[in-house]
DNA sequence: GGAAATCCTGAACAACCGTTCAGGATGAAG
DNA sequence: CTTCATCCTGAACGGTTGTTCAGGATTTCC
C-alpha cells in the first residue's frame, strides 16, 4: 500500500479537482506566474498527473479558463433569474461588485484573463464569447424594461456597450484597490449611470 | 578596435535607449514575456549592459514603467493645452481612442500595466498615481466647463470617476479587438456618455 | 600623458521549470 | 485468479533564463 498514494478510484473527480486548484493558483499568482508545481501542490497530487491529464501547462490553463467561463455564466444566469422584474435584475447587476455572485464578481481574475487574451488567441476567444453573453443578458434586461415601460432608451445598443464597459472600468479600480473605489461606490456609480442612460426615476 | 563595440561616449543616452527598447519589447511580448535577451537585442547592446545599468530585469521593467508614466502625462498635458475651451478639450479626450496621442492611446500597454499591478506593488502605485492625474485633468476640464456654463453637473466627482472608468472599459474592447469596438465607435460612445453626464446640447 | 573610474562585452554559472519516462498501483474484464 | 488498460508517481533530462564575473575599451580627471 505504498505507492499510488491517492487511489485512482475517481479520475473524473480528480480532473476537476486539479482544474479548481489551477484556478486557485491563477487567482493568487496570475496566469504568467502559475507553475506546474504550484498546481500539483494545490491539488495534492504529483506534477506528472497534471501533465498526464492535460498534456501541458498551457492545456491545464486553457481547461481551467473554460471551466471558469461556464461557471461565470451559470452563476450569472442563476442569480438573474431569481429576480422578478427588469428593474430588480438591473439592480442586481449593479450589485455584482459587492461580491455577491460567487465567481462573477472575481474581478482580479478578469484582469488576468484580459492580459492573457492579449497574447493567447484561445483566451481571446473565450473572453470575447463571455463578454458577448454578458452583454446579451444586459440587453435582454433593458429590452424587457423598455417594453414594460419601466425604462427608456433611444439607443439600446449604445447603452448596452456603455454600461457593460463601465462595469469593466469600475472593476479595474476595484481589483487594484484604488482608494477612490469601494464595492458600495461601485454599485452606486454604476446604478447612477444606468439611471442616466435609461431614464429611470428618482432612487427608490 | 575590436571590443567595446558601441562606444561609451554617452551613457545617459544609452540608458534611455535601453529603456525605450524595454518599452518596445513589453508592448510586443508583455511584461511577463519580456526577457533580458530581448531587451538587449532590441537595444543593440549586450545582456550584461542591461544588468549593469538597472541591476536586474525587474529594475529595468520598473524604470521603463516610470518612463512611460512621465511620457503619458506629458503627452496628455501637451495635447490638452493645445485646445481652446472645455468642450474642445473634452472632445479631444473622446478622440484618444483614435490613436492621436502618441503614447496615451496605447491601450495594450494599459492592460499590461493593470495585470502587472495585480502582483507588483511598485506597478500598483505607478498606475494609481497615473490614474489620479488623469482623473484630475478630467475634473479640471469639467469644472471649467461648469463655471463657464457650457457644462452642467450635479455630481462632478461621480461624473469624473464614471467617465474615466468608462474610457478604461472601452479601451479593453479596443485593445482586445472585440468586434463590437472600433476607434470611431470608442469616440462616439464616450462622447455620448459625456453628453448624458454633463448636459451638453445636441451634437455640434 | 598617465592613472583611475566608468562603461561595456561575452562567456560561464546556477537555478528553475516544463516535459518525458520507466515502472508501480489500481480497477475492470474475462 | 489472470490479464490488460488506465491511473499515478518520482526521478531525471534538457532547455531556458537571470545573474555574475573577469577583463577589455573608453572617458575623465589630474
User: Any idea what the shape of chain A is?
Assistant: elongated
The succession of helices and strands of chain A, N to C, reads HHHHHHHHH
Largest sheet of chain A: none
* Count of domains of chain A: 2
Largest interface: A-B, 45 and 45 residues
Oligomerization state: homodimer
What CATH calls the topology of the largest domain in chain A is: Tetracycline Repressor, domain 2
Question: How would you describe this protein?
Answer:
Two copies of one chain form a homodimer. Chain A is mainly α and 204 residues long. Chain A has two domains: 46 residues, Arc Repressor Mutant, subunit A (Orthogonal Bundle); 138 residues, Tetracycline Repressor, domain 2 (Orthogonal Bundle), CATH 1.10.357. Chain A is 72% helix and 0% strand. Chain A is built from nine helices and no strands. In chain A, helix 7 packs across helix 8. The first copy, chain A, is elongated and about 60 Å long. The relative contact order of chain A is 0.10. The N terminus of chain A is likely disordered. Chain A binds a DNA duplex (30 and 30 nucleotides) through helix 3.
Main attributes?
204 residues, DNA-binding, 9 helices, mainly alpha, Tetracycline Repressor, domain 2, elongated, homodimer
Question: Secondary structure elements and their pairing?
Answer:
Two copies of one chain form a homodimer.
Chain A: H1 11-29, H2 36-43, H3 47-54, H4 57-81, H5 86-94, H6 107-119, H7 121-148, H8 156-175, H9 183-198
The first copy, chain A, binds a DNA duplex (30 and 30 nucleotides) through residues 1-9, 11, 14, 35-37, 45-49, 51-53, 56-57.
Amino acid at each position: 500500500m505504498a505507492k499510488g498514494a491517492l487511489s485512482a478510484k475517481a479520475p473524473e473527480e480528480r480532473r476537476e479537482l486539479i482544474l479548481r486548484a489551477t484556478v486557485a493558483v491563477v487567482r493568487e499568482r496570475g496566469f504568467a506566474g502559475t507553475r506546474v508545481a504550484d498546481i500539483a501542490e494545490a491539488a495534492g497530487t504529483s506534477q506528472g498527473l497534471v501533465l498526464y491529464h492535460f498534456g501541458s501547462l498551457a492545456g491545464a490553463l486553457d481547461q481551467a479558463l473554460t471551466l471558469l467561463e461556464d461557471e461565470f455564466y451559470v452563476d450569472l444566469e442563476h442569480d438573474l433569474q431569481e429576480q422578478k422584474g427588469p428593474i430588480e435584475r438591473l439592480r442586481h447587476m449593479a450589485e455584482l461588485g459587492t461580491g455577491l455572485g460567487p465567481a462573477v464578481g472575481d474581478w482580479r481574475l478578469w484582469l488576468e484573463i484580459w492580459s492573457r487574451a492579449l497574447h493567447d488567441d484561445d483566451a481571446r476567444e473565450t473572453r470575447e464569447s463571455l463578454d458577448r453573453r454578458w452583454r446579451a443578458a444586459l440587453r435582454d434586461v433593458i429590452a424587457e424594461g423598455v417594453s414594460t415601460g419601466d425604462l427608456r432608451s433611444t439607443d439600446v445598443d449604445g447603452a448596452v456597450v456603455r454600461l457593460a464597459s463601465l462595469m469593466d472600468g469600475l472593476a479595474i479600480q476595484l481589483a487594484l484597490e484604488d482608494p477612490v473605489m469601494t464595492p458600495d461606490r461601485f454599485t452606486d456609480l454604476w446604478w447612477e449611470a444606468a439611471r442616466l442612460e435609461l431614464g429611470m426615476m428618482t432612487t427608490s
